[in-house]
Amino acid sequence: MDLPELPVNEYVVLHLLRSSGFFMFSKIYSDTTLSMALTLSAAAWGLYWFPLRLIESTGIEGAWSVVFFNACPLIVLTPLLICGFKSLRGTLGPALFAAVMIGLAFTLYANGLMETTVVRATLLYYLTPIWLTLIGVFWLSEPLTKKRLLSICVAFLGLVLLLSNGDAVQHPLNIGDLFSFLSGIFWAIGIACLKRWSTIPILPLTTFIFIATTAISAVFAGLLFNVPLPDITMLKTAFPTAAVWSIIFLLPCFCIIFRVSQLLFPGRVGILTMSEVVVAMISAAILLPEEPMLLLQWVGAFAILFAGLIEVPFGTRKKLS
Length: 321
Prior knowledge:
The chain is mainly α and about 325 residues long.
C-alpha cells in the first residue's frame, strides 16, 4: 500500500501487522503517541522481577524460573507462528538474528535479577541508552541532537543518585551484575536490528524471541548453573502465576515495545524505556524491605522520568485518522 510522504520527525506511519491476519497499529500515529505507548509498556516491564521471585518461592530454583516464565507465552504464540510463517518471507534471517540477540538479553537480565539486587540489575542494564545511541548514530544514521545528549545526561544523573545508598558495600558485586551489564549490550543490538529491518512481522518475531529466551535460559540453568530440573508438582503450582504474568500482563507490553522499536530511532527507545527503572525501584522498595530507597534515590527516579519527558515532543498532534 502506498502511503503519503510525511514530514520527518513529525509523524510515523505504523505498518500493518500481517501475522496471522491480525493488525497492529494500522493507523497513523505521531511520535508523541508512540513515545507514550513505549514509555508505559516499558514501565510495566519494571515488574518483570516480581513474577520471577514468586515462581522461585514455589521451590523452582532461580535459573529454571526464568525458563518456565518465558516458555508459557509459547502456548499462545506457537499457533500464531505456524499460521503467519509465510509473512516472514524475505526477513527470516534478520528475524532470527534479532530474536537471538534479544533472547540473550532477556536471559542475562532475568538471571541478573535473580542473582543480584533488583536495583543494581536494573541500573547496569540501563546503560543501554549509551549503546543504542552509538549504534543508532554509526549504523542507522540517527541524528545526535542536543536534546538527546541532555536526555542521556539527566537520565544518568538519575542513575547515579539511585546508587547513592552505598549498595555496592552492602551487596558485593557478583555474576548477576555482569549478566545485567551484558544484557544491555545485547538488547541494544537486538533493538537496532528491529529498526534496521522494520518490516519484520511482530507476532512471529515475538515467538522467535520467546523460543530463543527459553532455549538459552535452559542452557544457563542446566549447564552454567547446573541446577536440577524442577519436579512436576512445582511446575503445576507455579503455572497460574507464570501464565497470568507472562501471557496476560507482560506479553502485550513486549509486543508494543518491539513494534514501536521498529519505528523510533534506537537512542530514543533507550531513553524512553528507562521508565522501567522507576517502576522497578519503587516496586522493589515496597515489596523488598531489604532494598529500601533513600531520598536521593527518589530524586534520581524522578530525574529519569524527566529525561523521558525531554524526549517526548509534546505539542505535536497525537494522531491522524
